[in-house]
């Protein structure tokens, strides 16, 4: 009887270990971001487009997808909404946002945006991935006089 119980426990341990290996784990994440145009000069308001890439590395089991959250942070202390997407395999995801600014009250501005990304569950043993800041300048053309 003791041998049967030990054998059952050993089988359960192997099954549990196999299941744990099948779970998804995020080993590393990185983020990058660029501003386009990096130097805007023209009629305002101007639009700056930020294009980023989030790269997820690790073991991602398609049966156990990982939810990734991301958010854009700005030099004026504003933050974009938190967005999510599901990862079923390691790889890269393109994300983007725009910032419209400038006018008579703000004829010149130098600023930045940054991309912050993270796995939302317990798939990773780390916190957030931050891109380097994507810097830009904006200079509004003088308004036409009547």
Report on the structure:
This protein is mainly beta and 146 residues long. It contains 1 helix and 9 strands; from the N terminus they run αβββββββββ. The chain has one helix at residues 2-22; strands spanning 25-36, 39-42, 46-59, 66-74, 83-87, 91-101, 108-119, 129-130, 134-140. The strands form 2 sheets. Strands 2, 4, 5, 7, 8 and 9 form a 6-stranded mixed beta sheet that branches. β4 (66-74) and β5 (83-87) form a beta hairpin. The radius of gyration is 23 Å and the shape is elongated. The protein starts with a helix and ends in a 6-residue tail after the last strand. Mean pLDDT is 85; it is low at 1-20.
Quick recap:
Helices cover 14% and strands 52% of the residues.
Key terms for this structure?
mainly beta; 146 residues; 9 strands; six-stranded mixed β-sheet
Task: Give the topology, please.
Elements: H1 2-22, E1 25-36, E2 39-42, E3 46-59, E4 66-74, E5 83-87, E6 91-101, E7 108-119, E8 129-130, E9 134-140
Parallel strand pairs: 2-9
Antiparallel strand pairs: 1-3, 3-6, 4-5, 4-7, 7-8, 7-9
**Topology as a string of helices (H) and strands (E):** HEEEEEEEEE
Helix content: 10-25%
Number of helices: 1
Annotation, overall tally of beta strands: 9
- Enumerate the spans where pLDDT stays under 50 for 5 or more consecutive residues: 1-20
Alpha carbon gap, first and last residue: 100 Å
Q: Tell the overall outline.
A: elongated
Gyration radius from CA atoms, angstroms = 23 Å
Which structural category do the helix and sheet elements fall into? mainly beta
Mean pLDDT, to the nearest integer, reads 85
